[in-house]
């Protein structure tokens, strides 16, 4: 249902998610570390350095953001992972640390890069794979501290681990996405003529909190002509009868993200809106239908674009048509490698997770983006959330 309710009513009806998915276990994190070790060896490196941020959280559960002080894990072929940490943060770190690690501390006047170099010397490591998210300055200081070691990009190693989700990760992602879809349903119900986009953004954040997350990780609400801009305009849209509505939002559960977009019309859709909405639905389903292990990421993008071109849209990124890639990987980051775009020849494998969002932009009129996510299975793909069946029935 679109409209017919209000924020207070909808918020009062929301209950915390009834069946929370289990957290990632220590055993699973240890398995991730061993998988990383195998990839380090396969890529000809002797050690891996993982900086603070999502990657460190993935391997160790340490939820530490990247700042100017080096906090990192150094992983050697054998032995306990080494954690480099400022000495004054030891208590805070140990309060959240669940793994058995070799903790190496540095005081404020000391160089953490020297500690890393020492670990490399102890392990006779001459080739260090470095987290690509590590700031350039930190990487250069590592190079200076360990001049005999060559520094290489750890993207194939870290991305190789992150890209394949376990059953526990899939469950957390499924919960996050289904929570956001429920919030999307309720957001549609509060729409009335004259409501501002900012009011809907505020409601969605409150609803995400009420349903059991920390709130929206992001939220885009667009009405009317601004929907023709994929991420909106710097204005607070006011809803009118007949406007296209585009809402793109997400939350996180145990660090795993949702990212769901719905497009529909407030009021009765006109013929043009119906035609383009149906083409968008066909493109999204075409992208899903070609998914199977072994097919390249770029083939998914090509399948969506082929539908648009049959209807005279595009080609490539020309408008009216699809101005961006068909989808992105998702997990602990909202956007992560690999990507469903021409030029990304990464073969799909079971456990990979992607958005499917081949947006159509009609300049000066509106844009339509239907975004649901899928994970690759042994013989195809499975949706996390049911796609929209019709423009006047956007929620299955």
Task: Walk me through this protein's architecture.
The strands form 6 sheets. This protein has a 6-stranded mixed β-sheet, with helices on both faces. A 3-stranded antiparallel β-sheet has the order 7-8-11, with helices on one face. The protein is α+β, with helices and mostly antiparallel strands. Strand 17 and strand 18 (381-383) form a beta hairpin. The protein has helices at residues 7-13, 26-42, 54-60, 90-96, 112-122, 136-145, 155-162, 167-189, 197-211, 271-289, 297-310; strands at 47-51, 72-75, 82-86, 102-106, 127-130, 150-153, 218-223, 244-250, 252-253, 256-257, 260-265, 327-329, 336-340, 353-356, 360-362, 366-368, 372-376, 381-383.
The pLDDT mean sits at 97
Helix/sheet category: alpha+beta
- What low-confidence regions span 5 or more consecutive residues with pLDDT below 50? none
Elements, N to C (H/E) = HHEHEEHEHEHEHHHEEEEEHHEEEEEEE
Helix content: 25-40%
Name the strands of the widest sheet in spatial order.
4-3-2-1-5-6
Tell me about the biggest sheet?
6 strands, mixed
- In DSSP terms (H or I, runs of 4 or more residues), the helix count works out at 11
Shape: globular
Rg from alpha-carbon coordinates = 23 Å
Number of strands: 18
**Euclidean distance between termini CA atoms:** 11 Å
- Residue fraction in strands: 15-25%
């Amino acid at each position: 249902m679109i409209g017919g309710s209000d924020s207070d009513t909808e918020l009062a009806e929301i209950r915390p998610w009834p069946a929370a998915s289990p957290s990632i276990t220590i055993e699973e994190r240890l398995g991730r570390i061993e998988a990383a070790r195998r990839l380090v060896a396969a890529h000809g490196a002797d050690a891996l350095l993982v900086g603070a941020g999502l990657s460190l959280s993935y391997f160790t559960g340490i939820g530490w953001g990247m700042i100017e002080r080096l906090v990192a894990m150094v992983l050697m072929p054998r032995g306990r992972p080494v954690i480099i940490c400022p000495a004054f943060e030891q208590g805070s770190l140990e309060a959240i640390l669940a793994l058995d690690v070799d903790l190496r501390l540095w005081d404020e006047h000391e160089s953490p890069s020297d500690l890393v170099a020492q670990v490399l010397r102890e392990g006779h490591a001459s080739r260090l794979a470095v987290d690509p998210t590590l700031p350039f300055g930190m990487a250069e200081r590592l190079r200076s501290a360990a001049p005999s070691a060559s520094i290489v990009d750890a993207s194939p190693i870290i991305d190789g681990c992150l890209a394949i989700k376990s059953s526990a990760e899939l469950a957390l992602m499924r919960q996050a996405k289904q929570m956001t879809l429920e919030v999307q349903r309720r957001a549609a119900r509060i729409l009335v003529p004259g409501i501002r986009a900012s009011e809907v953004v505020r409601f969605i954040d409150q609803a995400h909190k009420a349903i059991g997350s920390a709130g929206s990780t992001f939220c885009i609400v667009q009405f009317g002509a601004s929907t023709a801009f994929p991420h909106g305009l710097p204005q607070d849209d006011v809803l009118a009868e007949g406007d296209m509505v585009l809402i793109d939002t997400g939350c996180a559960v145990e660090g795993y993200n949702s990212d769901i977009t719905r497009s529909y019309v407030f009021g009765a859709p006109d013929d043009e809106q119906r035609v383009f909405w149906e083409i968008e639905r066909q493109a999204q389903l075409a992208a899903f239908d070609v998914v199977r292990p072994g097919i390249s990421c770029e083939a998914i993008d090509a399948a969506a674009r082929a539908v648009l071109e049959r209807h005279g849209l595009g080609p490539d990124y020309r408008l009216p048509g699809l101005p961006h890639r068909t989808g992105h990987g998702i997990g602990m980051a909202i956007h992560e490698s690999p990507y469903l775009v021409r030029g990304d020849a990464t073969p799909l494998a079971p456990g990979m997770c992607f958005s499917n969002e081949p947006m159509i932009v009609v300049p000066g009129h509106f844009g339509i983006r239907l975004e649901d996510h899928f994970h690759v299975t042994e013989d195809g793909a499975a949706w996390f959330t049911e796609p929209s069946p019709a423009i006047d029935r956007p929620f299955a």
